[in-house]
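Usage

Read records sequentially. Each one opens with the input sequence:
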Amino acid sequence: MNPSPPPIKSRIKWRLWFAAWGVVLLAMLVSNPKWVPAAPLFPLGLIAVFPNGTEMAVMAWMMLLPVCVGWAFYALLTIVMVETRRNWLFVLIYVIFCLALALNVVGCNKTVEAVQGIH
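and closes with the structure output:
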């Protein structure tokens, strides 16, 4: 019976985490640097990727609870990612984390465009 491989080191996990957020920052800066002040509202982009989500995200823009829930989602994923000792579970959670970030970037672009259209 083959022993299982050693768990991924914590510093590698953190490097991957920072790399994912770095890609997000770069994507947002390339899209439109003017949107950087809206960074605290970043999790609202997850709402906007659903059907009719842009309208919901614009409404959530004015509320604190959806933003807090969004950041809690990312915090929970981060904690689980860093604390897991199983490599396959880390990879699975990291993929979910990266997909959520990618969808969030798309949703943020949709939301900010919708908010800019409000006069």
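Summary fields computed downstream for this record:
- The CA atoms of residues 15 and 32 lie 26 Å apart.
- The longest helix spans residues 87-116.
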